Amino acid sequence: TCTLGTPGPRSRTDMTSSLEPSQRDAPMRLVPLGRMAEPEEHASLLRWLLVDARYSTGNVFHISGGVTMG
């Protein structure tokens, strides 16, 4: 089995930096936290999975600011 960390909208990427502010902001209405994640927020979960969560297996962790709730 494997464990996954699935990233949601993330700030400071080549893809998002090329967008107009209106293009970046419109999808954020769908994100309960109301913002894109910082790269460090994704990295911290992935680090935890690699270092501290050795017994975790077969799970999917959505790093999405709440988009995937429910």
Describe the structure.
31% of the residues lie in helices and 11% in strands. The protein is α+β, with helices and mostly antiparallel strands and 70 residues long. It has a two-stranded parallel sheet with strand order 1-2.
Number of helices: 3
Largest sheet descriptor: 2 strands, parallel
What's the shape?
Answer: elongated
Walk across the major sheet and give the strand order. 1-2
Structural class call reads alpha+beta
Stretches where pLDDT is under 50 for at least 5 consecutive residues are: none
SSE topology sketch:
Layout lengths: L3 E4 L6 H4 L3 H5 L13 H13 L8 E4 L7
Parallel strand pairs: 1-2
Give the gist of this structure.
This protein has 70 residues and is of the alpha+beta class. The protein has helices at 14-17, 21-25, 39-51, and strands at 4-7, 60-63.
List descriptors.
70 residues, alpha+beta, two-stranded parallel ribbon, 11% strand
